[in-house]
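Illustration 12: 6-phospho-beta-glucosidase.
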Amino acid sequence: MSFKEGFLWGGAVAANQCEGAYKEDGKGMSLVDIIPAGKERFEAFFNPKKALETDYGFYPSHESIDFYHHYKEDIKLFAEMGFKSFRMSISWPRIFPNGDEKEPNEEGLKFYDDIFDELLKYKIEPIVTICHFDTPLYLATNYGGWKNRKCIDFFVNYATVLFNRYKGKVKYWLTFNEINMIQHIPFLGGGLIIEEGENKEEIIYRASHNLFVASSLATKIGHEVDKENKIGCMIASGSVYPYSCKPEDIIKAQDDNRAAYFYGDVHVRGEYPSYIKAYFKKKGIDIKMEEGDEEIIKKYPVDYYAFSYYSSRCTSTDPEVLGNCKANIFDSLKNPYLKASEWGWQIDAIGLRVTMRDLYDRYQIPLMIVENGLGAVDKVEEDGSINDDYRIDYLREHIKEMKIAVEEGIELLGYTPWGCIDLVSASTGEMKKRYGFIYVDKDNEGNGTLKRSKKKSFDWYKNVIITNGESL
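Figure caption equivalent — predicted structure in token form:
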């Protein structure tokens, strides 16, 4: 068999997209809790000052799919599918409502105790993201978010509480979800509210540095608390192709790939790469490196590289090349050899193998695919069935390429497709953009019974897991 015994088949969600109960049991406000749905969502992402001052009426994260009250039912369904793992996140403001408290909220800690106990009852391994776009809103509005070094101490305190509380229950940890997204959505990625006239690029790199130090310190503490802990980074990935073999296009693709490699290089190699140092010098960027920072980053690299993959990208230097599209935050030219989803995300299964090769050749540490999936509109038939063959086709082709990559010698720990149960879309705030094997009766306006039902893909994925990826 291609996949080793114990391969971590599973699924993935995020607290701010599924839990709901946004003010229950002492939880504080998260960044996402002020972000609306639909057309206004992107504006709020990029103009958080307006979002803070505006009452949009409906906020998808406030109830989401109410996993907070349905987790036992949902985990039972995951177990029925045969999940070996479940990638989830802990809501930072559920543990520290403002983020700067010294003592945690016990009700929040108990909630996750109950979730882990439920998962372990079914022998499902938790894979836990410590911060999945869930910096407490208070830290953004009162401290300036991650541009303020005080956030390092707040995060380290938070992570230390988690490591100690859940020792023996959680082995696999991720520090920050898609840490490189701070480059694209600074508010969501780092709680940054950047004023007009400020040096946006310098602020983003300064905040990124603080995230690196915090991640390294958390890795240090995680290993000290429990030597069995495996702690990884999590980076939004997808190799960038040159649009042509024109040398200028090759260089442009390399430059675009370096934007993500930078975050992996620091996490895995433990140092700032020469190309980014040269860039800082050229642009006059001061990240405010303090004494001891470099030593911390060097001494405590991650154990594995986790990443999300939805699509490859394509770039060119030719202004005459038409067909530019923007999907999933990242800019990309339309690749003429690929089809696209209903939301314009280009579908490239082979690109997953390309990305795995690029990452493993560069870092030579275990990989984990913690997000991959197809957002689509699902139709409920009169008999209640949901025939999502398009999702099965998407996942099948990606698993085939993943399988080839493993056979080529790449060490892969697990695969947790995104949105294993329908949840609120991060990019659009919609419910109709569904990813799950499990349908949740809720619409874009928040109406519905929240009833869970199985899609056709449920039994298909169950069979994939039973056969350890041999039957697709």
